[in-house]
Prior knowledge:
Strand order of the largest sheet: 1-28-27-26
Structural class: mainly beta
Oligomer: single chain
Number of strands: 28
Strand content: over 45%
Amino acid sequence: MNTLKRLRNLWIPWVATIVLGCFSDAVAQVRYHVEDLGTLEDGFFGCTMGVNNHGWTETQYGLLEAGKLLKGRVAINFDGFTFPIPTLGGPNNWDNPFGGEINDRGEAVGFSETDVLDPNGEDVCGFGTHLTCSAFLWRKGHLSALPTLGGNNGQATAINNRGQITGFAENGTVDSSCSANATNTRIQLPVIWEDGKARALRTVGKDPDGVANAINDHGQAVGSSGNCAGGLHAVLWDKNGTARDLGAGAAAFGINNQGQIVGLAPSVDGSTFSAALWQDGAIKDLGTAGDHAAIASGINNKGQVVGSTLDSTFNWVHAFIYEEGKMIDLNTLFPAESNLFPTMANQINDRGQIVGMATVLSGPHEGETHAFLATPVEEREGRSVADVAPGHPKSNLPANAGKQLLQRLGRGRFDQ
């Protein structure tokens, strides 16, 4: 199976060129205070997807069984409290990865099931209920559904400090590029919501579908366009709506206020993919740190990049930070007393706080997957997680959970 088909099967639009690299062996002169954001209830896993500049986070909590996500709930974490966001009538809600789901005003976005069955049998929220799926905005204690472009479903991915929201929305038209066995068969267009209205963005080439993954405070958005089977191009949308093709087979997940973009890049031979950074009109390969593949998922306004590496079966292996030309394993920066082995880093704010998910190393919750918030502090790093857990710890996630999580981290049919 070629890489494109493999990535389509994983429900993720991926990206463009690779130079193999290694994590820095040096222990940085920074120590992280790590807050374990845990799980919502026994059997659930936690993964923090967004963080604002106040250190407030948006976390997804879910229940996996046999590699399938059975339940999902989004929560806001702040000042030691965890507040679950209600749904729009259905049993589950969820958020998308990488883009920045909570802004500095505490406004948060994601998607939720409603209590209405999809008349076309679609399952865009992906929980197997076939309920309609709506993008949502959580603002000042009120949850509201965001409009589509005429179809039944949509998902929100990110919100900037101006209140502009990215994601995708259906227009109701049957997507002729879908296979006969596809579940979600309506065209999904990249969209920006502003002042409660949905504005469709252009795709590139003849791509019928797309998703906007992230947006900066200048209104520049990034994401992917493609067809029913998956993403085919990384795209930058300027604030005037112009769509720029960043490369065939590419996808972009984050953009800062300087216009630097992060995402993924497939290898020359098409066998794997690596973390990538676009700046000054060029793409830079950040490597895979010796693992099979890597994702660059978040970038702050200082140019610090975070992401994750994966093994050959597409399970999460290491979380990393990339700065000053070096990819550094977060396990070398987490203190041993954190008792967490970070496997996934999603976002970094301008204070350098990092969020993601980690495996609990010991104690009554050993092997569980917990959400975390890591805050840098000014003191020399002592004993790190890398010293006490040189190997990869056993996780409570199913053997194929990495693949399933990759599927969940995609958007709608972009991920089929």
